[in-house]
Prior knowledge:
By secondary structure, the protein is mainly alpha-helical. It has helices at 4-31, 35-60, 62-90, and strands at residues 97-98, 104-105. It has a two-stranded antiparallel sheet with strand order 1-2. The longest helix is centred in the middle third of the chain and has 29 residues, at 62-90. The two termini are 29 Å apart.
Amino acid sequence: MRDIQEVYNELLETKKGQKDIKREYRDALLSANEYEETVDKLKELREKKKQIETITQGRLGARWDELERLKAKADELATMLTDIAMTELMAGKTIALKDEYDNSYEPVYKITFKKIQ
């Protein structure tokens, strides 16, 4: 198995290469004839879309507010589910869930790293 520091260093090199190519790509796009005018049209259309969405949300009124409340509750419950699963995992318990169709689910764990200040 490779050393974790070695893999991390290779990851940094790979990301640097991606960054360089993305910079070249952006420069090439800016030199393309129709790119800027297409971007401007896209901005206008996005703004128009946002206005239509805002008007429609206003028309929905309380139903839209209920949707926002349900989204916040779903996020809170997902966080709680993760916390409970981690607690049970640390206690050595097996974690499994089933939905209304009797489909089984098992947890997927992910480790990420953040820079220490």
